[in-house]
Design brief:
This protein is α+β, with helices and mostly antiparallel strands. It folds into 2 domains: about 220 residues; about 140 residues, no CATH class. It is about 35% helix and about 35% strand. Strands 1, 2, 5, 8, 9, 11, 13 and 16 form an 8-stranded mixed beta sheet that branches. Helix 4 runs antiparallel to helix 6 and helix 6 runs antiparallel to helix 7. The longest helix is centred in the last third of the chain and has 24 residues. The chain is elongated, with a radius of gyration of 33 Å. The protein starts with 8 loop residues before the first strand and ends in a 6-residue tail after the last helix.
């Protein structure tokens, strides 16, 4: 789905990008017997200017789309950008500017997956309307959009305010590079399980079953992005140091079908061992010899449970599929145990124990924050029950060979 629509989005900017050509004049004396001559060389480059203030607001809505039987959470957001650039006279350049020729000033916004752009983008720059064009027009941004701007008066400091909205779709995560000298990003959504990611945590956040609201605030003192934009070379694009300074939110679903199935599989060894332990306790207490082949059949039944669970959960809700898979395997094992022990009552007791075990596993799988605690309590309870049930067993007699 991400390949067809849009993947995780990383927003960088806006930034002002200024192209220039520098004329370098040097005197060359070669050979020494001839008069000196002037060598002229031109070098092209770009300057990046970050906004003095940047405020971004995001209202993020999610929907579930399907590719075949596989659901994917896709978000749609409207991003509102407001801020201003503060340019010094001569762009703050202290060296002589007689040999510098400035050109192609543009405002660029980096968007990691431009397929997520929903509509044409219009903005206000310095009070004038303009439209974005494809491409970031900056070697430090891998993909994005830009708008050409007229060159301001070089001899006067200039403040350039901007305002625009961006409607975007994506999957998995929405991240930002806080490029402003002072940046504030506010986000709200009905998604109940946000994961805050990146180098900077929110200063305010409120999470409930109805969704979340959050606010990030950063300054150039902690991001140091001015120096990074100045030091990154075009050959290093996209600049890894800049992209590492991101913040954002990931849309995680801690209890979706695949996550629950993965958790159940991770607990498989534990429950196979516990089932075998119950089998062995029955064997010891009832003085019935169980052939290793019977243990193998029981183990195969337990393995089939996980196969049924994963395959069924791709089509239905996890709770119903878990119930069907566990009932099928418990019935299979209980029927087999009845023939092994020759007693319906003993088989039903073991079946009840398996039912309690699978019920406890279901509770552990759905516990987000208390899974380890519940699993530890389950192990303690099983160990205590085994010790109580076998407290009168003479284990030395169990290891003696039977008389011929």
């Amino acid at each position: 789905m991400a390949r067809s629509a849009a993947g995780s989005q990383l927003i960088t900017g806006p930034v002002l990008v200024l192209g220039y050509r520098k004329t370098i004049r040097t005197e060359v004396v070669d050979p020494p017997s001839l008069p000196a001559r002037e060598s002229v060389e031109e070098r092209a480059g770009t300057l990046h200017f970050l906004p003095a203030t940047l405020q971004i607001t995001s209202e993020l809505d999610t929907e579930v789309r399907k590719r075949g039987i596989f659901p994917v959470d896709v978000y749609r957001t409207v991003l509102k950008f407001d801020g201003a650039f503060e340019l010094a006279a001569l762009f703050g350049i202290t060296e002589p500017v007689e040999d510098l020729a400035f050109r192609n000033l543009r405002l660029s916004v980096g968007i990691s997956d431009i397929r997520g752009i929903v509509a044409d983008l219009k903005l206000q720059v310095d009070g004038e309307p303009a439209y974005f064009q494809p491409g970031p027009e900056s070697a430090l941004l891998s993909s994005g959009i830009h708008v050409p701007l007229p060159l301001p008066d070089l001899n006067q400091p200039r403040k350039i305010p901007f305002s625009f909205s961006l409607e975007l779709i994506g999957t998995e995560a929405l991240r930002f590079i806080p490029v402003g000298r002072n940046t504030q990003i506010e986000m709200s959504s009905k998604w109940p399980h946000p994961g805050f990611i990146g180098e900077y945590l929110p200063v305010e956040r409120n999470i409930s079953g109805a969704g979340f609201t959050t606010t990030w605030k950063t300054t150039s003192i902690i991001t140091n992005l001015d120096a990074m934009f100045a030091s990154c070379r075009p050959s290093e694009a996209p600049c890894a140091a800049i992209e590492a300074r991101h913040l954002g939110v990931s849309l995680i679903d801690p209890v979706n079908n695949y996550t629950l199935s993965e958790r159940a599989t991770k607990h498989s060894l534990l429950f196979i061992v516990l089932t075998f332990a119950g089998f062995f306790i029955f064997e010891v207490m009832k003085q019935v010899r169980v052939h290793p082949v019977q243990y193998a059949f029981v183990g195969a039944g337990l393995v089939v449970f996980y196969l049924l669970l994963i395959s069924l959960s791709e089509h239905n809700g996890f709770a119903v599929d878990y119930l069907l898979s566990s009932l099928a395997c418990i019935t299979l094992i209980t029927t087999d145990v009845r023939s092994v022990f020759g007693s319906t009552g003993r088989a039903l007791i073991l079946g009840a124990g398996l039912s309690a075990l699978y019920g406890a596993l279901y509770c552990v799988l759905n516990a987000e924050d208390f899974a380890l605690l519940m699993g530890s309590a389950l192990l303690f309870g099983v160990l205590a029950a085994a010790m109580m049930l076998t407290r009168k067993v003479d284990w030395s007699l169990q290891t003696k060979p039977e008389a011929s």
